[in-house]
Amino acid sequence: MGRLYRPLKRLPAHDWHVARGALFETFGDWSRPAAYRQAGETLEAAARREAGTVRKRAGLFDGSPLGKLEVFGPDAARFLDLMYVGTMSTLEMGQARYGALLNENGILVDDGIVARLAEQRFWVNTTTAGFERTLASFEEWLQCEFVDLKVAVTPVTSRWGNVTVAGPLAWEWLAKVGFDAALAPAAMAHMTMRETQWESAPVRVLRASFSGELGYEVNLPVDLAEGLFERLWSHAEELGAVLYGIEALEVMRVEKGYIHIGTDTDGTTLPGDVGFARGIERKAAPFVGRRSLLRPAARDPGRLQLVGLVPLDGQTLLPVGGQIAPNPPPTLSEGHVTSSHLSPELGMPIALAMLKDGSQRTGEEVRVHHLGTSIAARVTQLPFVDPSGARVHG
Q1: 57, 147, 197, 299: which has the highest count of C-beta atoms within 10 A?
Q2: 1.20.1250.20, 3.80.30.20, 1.10.3720.10, 2.40.30.110: CATH of 301-381
C-alpha cells in the first residue's frame, strides 16, 4: 500500500526544482512546487512575493501537469463543437479559444484551451485534475453516441513538458535564450499557438495566461524541459525574475477573477453561474448538456453566481467556506466563499464567492460567518486587477 498503491507523478524537471528550494505539495496526482521559500518566509509570504514579482517583472512556472490531448480526424472540429460550449470549428489555423466542458446535466466539469494546429488536428488543454475525466468523457461520447464521427483522441500529457513564462518581461526573457522574433507580442497575438523550433527541438508555443499578465506556455519534449528551465534561469537575476509555484498562481488568478474548477465550482454549477451565459446564447449548434440548461431549475433567478468580495475593514481575510447570510447561524445561507487571498497588488484581502443572485448584488454589503465570527464584506465586480485586460497583450 502507501506510495506504491497510488504513486505520485513527478515533474520532468523535479530534481531541478528541488535544487532551487521548491516546497512540494500534492496537487491531484502530482507532486508540484507550492512555492520557493526564502529564509524565514512563510508559504503565504512566499506566494505574495512571487506573485508581486510576476506582476512587476517576470516569473517562471512549471505547467507540465496541465492535461494535453490531440484530437484529429475529418470530424475533429465537429466533435469539439459538440463537447464544448465554445465553437471550435470556426478557429483559424494557429488560433486558440477557451472552452467550458459540461456533462449531460449541464454541470461544468472542466475547462481549458483548444488550439487549431491544422485543418483536422487540434491541441486540447484540460485542467490537471480533470484530464482523466475529460479523456474518459471524450471516449465515451465517441464510442456510445457519436459513433459515425471519424475522430481519434490521443493523450499526450506525458510527452510534452510545459515551461510557462509570465509577466511584463516575459518576451524579453524568452528572446535572451534564442526564441524566434515571430513569437514577440507584436507578431503573435494573445490566444494563438505556433509550432516552431528552439535549438532544433520542436516546440508548441501558446500565448495564454492564467496570471492575467503577458504569458507564454512553451510546450516541448519532456526530456528537454529541464534544459530550457536552466537556460532561462541563467538570465533571471538580470531581469529581477523569480520562480513561482501553485500558491502564487492561485493569488494571481483570484486577482483576475478566474475560476478554478472544483474550487469555485461544485456539482451544481452551471456555466451561466460563472459568467458564461453569453457563450451559450451565441452558439446555435447543439452541445453536450445544452438541453439540461433549458430546465426550470437551470433558469432559477435564485441561483448561486460568481462574485468578488472584499472585507469592509480592508484587513480581515475572508475564510474559505465562510457562509454568507444576514444573520449568524442557524439561518439560511445565501452563498459561501470559495477562494480567498491577500492581494499583493491591492494590499488587501480579496475573495471569490458564490452568492444567490450575485450578478444583481454588486455594491451590496453582506456578512460572512465562520466558526463564531462574523465579517462585514462588500460584493464587488470582477476582476480585481486590470479590468480592461490590457496586460495579457504585452
Answers
A1: 57
A2: 2.40.30.110
Cell of 6: 497510488
Task: For CA atoms 281, 284, 285, 290, give the dihedral sign.
Answer: positive
> Do strands 22-27 and 30-36 pair parallel, antiparallel, or not at all (unpaired)?
antiparallel
- C-alpha distances out from residue 142 to 13, 26, 380, Å: 35, 32, 42
Q: Where in the chain is the domain with CATH 3.30.70.1400?
A: 67-155
What is the CA angle 176-180-185, rounded to 5? 85
Q: According to DSSP H, which parts of the chain are helical?
A: 14-19, 43-56, 76-83, 131-144, 170-176, 222-233, 236-239, 246-256, 277-282
* CA distance readout (Å), 317 to 311, 322, 324: 7, 11, 14
Stretch(es) of the chain classified as CATH 3.30.1360.120 = 2-65+159-254
Mean pLDDT (whole number) for 20-29: 95
What proportions of the chain, in percent to the nearest 5, are helix, strand and coil?
25, 30, 40
Domain with CATH 2.40.30.110 in the chain: 301-381
Helices 246-256 and 43-56, interaxial angle, to 10°?
Answer: 60
Domain 67-155, what architecture? 2-Layer Sandwich (3.30)
Q: pLDDT tens, 210-256? A: 999 999 999 999 999 999 999 999 999 999 999 999 999 999 999 99
Inter-residue contact 251 to 55 (CB < 8 Å): no
For the structural domain made of 2-65+159-254, what CATH number should be given?
A: 3.30.1360.120
